[in-house]
Amino acid sequence: MTLEEYTLEEKEAIEELRRRLEGEMSQEMFEDDNMFIRFLRARNFNMNAAETMLRNHIAWRKANNIDTILTDYTLKEVVEKYLTLNRIGFDKEGSPVLYSHFGNLDTKGMLKSIKKSDAMKSIVRRLETDILAMKEESAKRGKTVDKWIYIFNFENFSFSTATHKQTLDALSSLVTMYEANYPERLKAGYLINVQFYFTLAFSVIKPFLSGPTIKKINIFGRDGWKEALLKNIDADVLPAFLGGTRTDPDGNPACKTFINYGGLVPEHYYIRRSSKQFSQLPGIKKYTITRMSKIELIMTVTEPGSYIEWEFETKSKDIGFSLLYKEDNMDNSKVKELIPKQRIDTYMSSEMGMYKCERPGIYIIVFDNSYSWMFQKEVYCKA
C-alpha cells in the first residue's frame, strides 16, 4: 500500500509514528506503511498509545527471534501431525483462508507434548507464513492484501476441552499475544457448528479479545454458515464439506490431502507425566459416593467475574459431574443448571476445569452416582 492511498491525516500520522521509531526496527519494517497504519488504527490514532504498542511489538519480535522464525524454527513432529490449522486457499479478494477442525484438537495431549514456548512459536510461525503469502498475493494482484480469514469448526468440541483450565489458560495467552502483535489483521472469523460447550469456553476467552476483533467474529450453529462462507470464498476454493465444490483428487469431500483433522495425541509424545498420583497430592479431599446417590460441593461467590476451578479423579469407573447455580441459600431459590451432567472417566488423567461466574450467588458442583445400581465411587477432588 502506498502513501497515496491514505488520507492526509493518515499520512501525517504514519510519518510521525515512523519518526518516533526511527532506528528501532529493521529497514523492511521501517518502510512498511501498512504496519504503521495498522498499529495506529488499533489504538484509534492515539499517537502515544500506538507508539507504546509498536515498541512492545518490536521488543517481542526481538526477544522471540520472530524475524527468523520461518528459517530457524522447526515445528515439533506432534504439532505437524496433530495441530489442525491449514491454509485452504485465498478468498475472492486474495486474503488467506485458514481452517481448523478445532473440535477434534486434543489440547490436553498437545499441552502435555510441547512446551508453552513451542505452542506460541508454532502459532506464530503459521501467522508469519501467512503474512509472507499476503505480501506475495499483494504483488500478484497489484493491491494490498493485509488481512486473513479464519474458520474454526467446533464439531465434536467436548465438555472436557471447554472447561479444561490449562487449555483455557493457553488459549487466553495465545489470544493476548495475537491482539498485541497482529492488530487489524483479521478480516473475518467464522466459528461454525458451535453448541453449548462453546459458550463455556468463549466466556473465558472473550475478555482477551479486542472490540474490533469481536465485531468480525461470526458465530453459527449447525446452519447458515455455508452460505456466509460462499459470499467471500469461491466454491472451487472451499472444500465440499464446507459448502464448496473442492474435493481431493479421488473425489473425497473431506479433503484430507490438505486438511489436518487433528485427533488424539499418542502418549509416546508426552513430555509431562505425573510423577505422583493425584490422590496423594496436598489439599486433595476424598469423597465416597454410594451407589444411587450423589454429593454436592457448595461454593459462595461474591464477586461477578470470579472463576471456579476444579480438579478430580475417580479410582475406578466414571462419575457424573454437573454445575448448578442459585441466587441464595433460601429453600425456594430457583436452581439453574449451568453445566449439564456429564459422565466423566478419569482413567487417563485427572479432570481439570474452570467456569467463569457471571453473577454472585451459590454455585454447586455435583458428583452424581445415581445411575449406578452396583458400584460406589471414590472421588478425589480439589475445588
TrEMBL record:
An annotated GO cellular component = cytoplasm
Q: What is this protein called?
A: SEC14-like protein 2
Q: Which residues form the CRAL-TRIO domain?
A: 75-250
InterPro entries xref list: CRAL-TRIO_dom (IPR001251), CRAL-TRIO_dom_sf (IPR036865), CRAL/TRIO_N_dom (IPR011074), CRAL/TRIO_N_dom_sf (IPR036273), GOLD_dom (IPR009038), GOLD_dom_sf (IPR036598), SEC14/CRAL-TRIO_domain (IPR051064)
Q: Which residues are in the GOLD domain?
A: 272-383
Could you tell me which CDD domains the record lists for this protein?
A: SEC14 (cd00170)
Taxonomically, which superkingdom?
Answer: Eukaryota
